[in-house]
Each structure stands twice: as C-alpha cells, then as structure tokens.
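The protein record passed on for reference:
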Amino acid sequence: WTEPATKAFDALTPLAYFEAQRPGSQTFAAVKAPLMLDLIAGFSLADHLNKPLYMLSAGTRRKVWLSAAFASGAPLTLIDEPFAALDLPAIDFLTDLLHEASEHPTRAFVVAHFEPLGDVSVAQVIELGD
C-alpha cells in the first residue's frame, strides 16, 4: 500500500523504494528485470531513479508508485485515480498497461476512477453514481 500523498518515502530514491518493496513479495520484479525496465522506460523514470522522492513532482512520484504496483506481481491490485497528475505520454502508457492487465490470467486490478477509462478493456464496471 502506498498513499499517493505520503511523505514516508521522501528520503528514498525510486530505486531504493523499488528495492524496499521486494522483501515482502516473492513476485516483485527486480530493478533490472525486463518488466521493471519496461515500466521505467514507459513512465520516463530513467532520469529520476537516483533523485530523492521529495525532489520529484507529484506526477513523477505517482509514476513510481504505479511502477511498483505493476511490478509487484500481486494477485489483486487496487488503483485509485490512476491518471491523476500524469502527463499525456504516461496516461497513454498506463492505458496500455491497464489494457494488458485486463487480460492477465492470474491478476486482478480494481481501478477507481470518476470517468470512463477510454480504450481500456474491463471485465466489469460498477457505477456508484454521484
């Protein structure tokens, strides 16, 4: 669990944050694993990997949290407002990730969002109203 507005990890770099997530999960992708490398490239994180998180924008921090969520291998992943604070290339990349995730045979993603997810395939939509 990572609260997007948390300051708890501010002193860590994204690389250190990713490594800190691995001990609790046998399925968390290593930093140099193909999946993590794809996430780093797709979210344009390469230039930020060695900067403390407190130096990063809200959008870049969210990209770190999202990368960790997708790299976790968790059977259930909850994502609240996934597109908040993201730039357009990151939104496009995340849309592709969510589309791929919708076809994953052993993982489920629950996404809370206030607008339709566009081209993302979903198994079920639950509308909660206003």
Observations:
- Helices lie at 14-21, 34-42, 58-71, 88-101.
- The mean pLDDT is 90.
